[in-house]
Amino acid sequence: MANAIASLIQSLSDKEKRGIRSFLLHEKDRKDLNRLFEVYASQPDPKVQLKHLTQKKFELYNLIIEKLSFDSTNEQQKFFKSLSRIEVLFKKHLYEYALKELLKAKQKLLQMERYNDLLIFYDWEIRIRIQLTQKTGKYEVFDKLHEEYSSYLKEYKEIIDYFNLYFKLNASVWGVTKRNESKIQSFIRHPLMQKKVEGKSAYVKYCYYSILMTYSQLHPLSKQKTDMILIGMFDLIKSSRLFPFDLGAELIAICNICSFSLNISRSDYAENLLKIIEVKLHECKNELPTIYRNMRLRWIELTLIYYKRTDTLEKVDSILLEESGFIQKSTQNANKMLLLSVNLHIVSFYIFLKKYDEAHKWFNQISKIHLKKVVVNRQNIIDIINLVIHYELGNLILLEALVNRLIRNVNRFQKFRVEERAFVKMMKALVQLRLKDSGDQKIKDALKKASKIIDQDFSFEKSVGFFNYRKWVDNKIAST
Questions:
Q1: What is the distance in angstroms between the CA of the first residue and the CA of the last residue of the chain?
Q2: Among candidates 32, 42, 35, 54, which has minimal Cα distance to 9?
Q3: Which of 74, 443, 446, 459 is at a distance of 20 to 30 A from 128, taking alpha carbons?
């Protein structure tokens, strides 16, 4: 419960905190709750042990949830309030007014394509119309209702089917290898993907396009297909039909579209999407602080990749000057994997800008992130970037020790990809040649030998963009 209450309080906006403080202060018998609230509001992981208030944590947690639910003004809450009004009018036998209330709410949900919520109205509409038809005797209305709600059910089932396919594909792609490529191919040949999505709901279109975007990480799509995805997704964003109840989900979706546009080198779309993300971030800054922190980090990451794709590396310093304070403050309360990604991008940029001291400084920030477990691919990148930094700084004795430790750890080393193992072995050769002062030609030969093995077609850099092994090796060959 301690983790739950801490996470909940840290996610509150300043406005929500003021409201809860005001509520607790006006209740004389809730001084302990107020004290507990202030402890968790001031420090995410309080060192003070409040053992005598353990039972109060449950009470405070429930109180905050109830207060937020009562104060909520979002569309989802309005929907539930409409149901409450319909129930009140029905119990008062005011069936005509209850039906008007129901039809008004139903029309709004239809506009937003909320078919799952529409199905909740079926029972209420049947009950109301039974009471009304007892006066008129016109029972044919129930055939129309059955047909209408059956169409909602069909639409909702199709949305679920697409979501299911989308999540299965993502699970298969994560850490994908050649061995399960046939399984990946089966997703794109699925009957759902053969259907036309014109005229379908926003959610169906979003899942359809998302499946294609995920698939494109492994197999390039035709320009016609990629244009269709970008135009379709842009239309959904502009029509405000994409996740109308959830600004956080909408931001995540827009970031994914921006990432896709960068991967297919459509920087024109990416530039516009980055501007849209900035506007959305401003909207959620006060109301959704946790979402804001994580999505601002994602925006920084995408902006850095955009600078890389458009060869405008000189702009990196300006954005980091503005955002470095925010990145460092996010160490304790932001998504750790996202924070790691941003730091790796920054380090990579400084390496290619030949600002090795800056790269080393940002690399040291990674140790402060405190990840319990790092995805193997990312750990490989961390180890390799560490080698590169010390090579460029001339720390040859330390570099030799780091390389030997990596190679001796057989179980760890086997988790490296072929080109990554080649890179590490190349670093071992380079450090030995430099320690022996063997001359530039031998160093260049070692670099060329590794260059033949390193294959960027299957490099992790292609999908994530952290560090381009081939580019670094080619730069060293050219400058040696």
A1: 59
A2: 42
A3: 74
Quote the CA–CA distance of 438 and 204 in Å, as a whole number.
62
- Average pLDDT rounded to a whole number, residues 119-147: 79
Long-range contacts of 428-433 (CB under 8 A, 24+ apart): 428/400, 428/403, 428/404, 430/391, 431/391, 431/396, 431/399, 431/400, 431/403, 432/400
Dist. CA 448–CA 461, nearest whole Å: 20
Q: What's the pLDDT at 136?
A: 63
**CA pair distance 320, 318, nearest whole angstrom:** 5
Separation of alpha carbons 203 and 236, rounded Å:
9
- Write out pLDDT tens, residues 285-323: 777 777 888 889 999 989 988 888 787 777 777 888 888
Distance (Å, whole) CA 74 – CA 62: 20
Please state, in angstroms and rounded to a whole number, the distance separating the CA atoms of residues 470 and 451: 7
Q: Do 336 and 375 contact (CB within 8 A), yes or no?
A: no
Boundaries of every domain in the chain? 2-71, 75-157, 374-480
Distances (CA, A) of 172 to 63, 135, 226, 373, 376: 41, 58, 22, 20, 16
pLDDT attached to residue 199: 74
Spatial CA neighbour of 211 closest among 195, 432, 402, 199: 195
CA distance 460 to 467: 8
pLDDT band at 79 (very low <50, low <70, confident <90, very high): confident
Q: Work out the angle at residue 154's Cα, subtended by the Cα atoms of residues 151 and 160, and round it to the nearest 5 degrees.
A: 145
3-state class (DSSP) for residue 46: coil
72 has pLDDT over 60: no
Nearest-10 crossing angle of helices 141-173, 181-188: 150
Taking only the tens place, the pLDDT of each residue in 217-248 is 777 788 888 888 888 888 888 776 666 667 77
Residue 243's region, left for phi above 0, alpha for psi from -120 to 50, else beta, is left
The tokens for 260 are: 């896709």
Nearest to 466 by CA among 393, 384, 391: 384
